[in-house]
Amino acid sequence: MVTVFPEEMLNKSSLERKVLSPPKKDEELFLQSKETGAAREVIEGHNRQRFANHFNYADPYCGNPKTYDHQGNYNCGRCNQAVGDKCLLLKIAKIDRKAGSCEDWEVIDAGDTEMTLYNKHPETASYGIAKNGKGFGCHRCPYASKAYSPDSLGRTLYCGKGDFRVFPNACCLANGAELINE
Ligand code: SF4
Ligand code: SF4
């Protein structure tokens, strides 16, 4: 059989990969590095991208910028898919406009059409209502701490979950917010 891929590319399961294991502060969180400069930012950039891919992390320069809330709340009331107390995407009777949110939050944009899907299960979308009644975001996240110094783009917090610096108003799925009915 003729294939465009050489055999060694099709069977890569035994290929050696680098596995990072940065020092930890405790069982749950990584220890913030005091290192600054380009080499450190390259490491953090990769870690941040990992969180963008697997935990929907977004800020103006990483992940999907349309899922970045410059107000840092990520509440349903400011999402493109909310219409009144209904969500166009989720199969949910009612959303909480003030403190509800899910992994599909998107900035309100007149140029971004939505559709009457009412289809995605709330659990699949990690829908939840923040106990604080206000919303989510790195600035409220128990896994964030003040960065020793901002990175070159101005990220002022350190994410101990993923080992990279973040903007206070960024967010991700691992946000640690206490939820109602949890
Ligand atoms: S449930 Fe998710 S997609 Fe629906 S309005 Fe709220 S944040 Fe947006
Ligand atoms: S600080 Fe919290 S919300 Fe922000 S990226 Fe890290 S885990 Fe996610």
Could you characterize the architecture of this molecule?
This protein has helices at 7-10, 38-55; strands at 82-83, 86-87, 100-101, 128-129, 144-146, 157-159, 164-166. The termini are far apart. It has two helices and seven strands. Strand 6 (157-159) and strand 7 form a beta hairpin. Helix content is 12%, strand content 9%. The protein is largely without helices or strands and 182 residues long. The longest helix has 18 residues, at 38-55. Strands 5-6-7 form a three-stranded antiparallel β-sheet. It has a two-stranded antiparallel ribbon with strand order 1-2. The mean pLDDT is 95. Bound molecules: iron/sulfur cluster (2 copies). One iron/sulfur cluster (SF4) is lined by residues 76, 79, 81-82, 87, 89-90, 95, 100-102, 104-105, 127.
